[in-house]
Amino acid sequence: MRITKTPFELFHIECGKGWESLYKPILEYIENYNKDKKEEEKIIVTQVKEKFGGLRFYVSHYTDELFEMINNAENESYEICETCGTRDNVGLKGGWHETICYNCVKKRSKESCMPIQWINRTNKEKYWIYPDYDEKIEEKANEPDF
Q1: Angle between helices 64-76 and 20-34 (to 10 degrees)
Q2: Which of 17, 91, 133, 141 has the most CB within a 10 Å radius?
Q3: What's the pLDDT tens digit per position in 91-122?
Q4: Cα gap 10→76, rounded to integer Å
Q5: Rounded to 5 degrees, what are φ and ψ at 84?
Q6: String of DSSP letters for the chain
Q7: What is the pTM (predicted TM-score) of this model?
């Protein structure tokens, strides 16, 4: 019997709804896997979150199939907007790294009345996204190699 709660038990999913298509099949796989297992054989989800702009999925142990599912979902998360789930015009928000599409970063800039630095993942061009206009930064971005 475990006494300490995992971050997943305390906070559940710690990333945007845009990645639901990535983490939901994994959670369903674990639920189905655990149905006929003894307590000590069950896979425990310890945390599902965003880190450095990508999905992170932590479990107590895994099968080969689950490992592949998690690995694929984590890699794919860099191509999907964490906010809305689109694969169109996705980039990386500066500061607190976040994989986010142009439309969502523009909306956030307007809502906050603040400029946001954003790197287009396709062409590596860097921009300041302002509420009413965008400003391209001349040098190419040295985006982290995920």
Answers
A1: 170
A2: 91
A3: 999 888 999 999 999 999 999 999 999 999 99
A4: 26
A5: -115, -15
A6: ---SPPHHHHH-EES-GGGHHHHHHHHHHHHHHHTTS-GGGS--EEEEEEETTEEEEEES---HHHHHHHHHHHHHGGGS-TTT---SSEEEETTTTEEEEHHHHHHHHHHHT--EEEEETTT-EEEEE-SS-EEEEEEEP-----
A7: 0.88
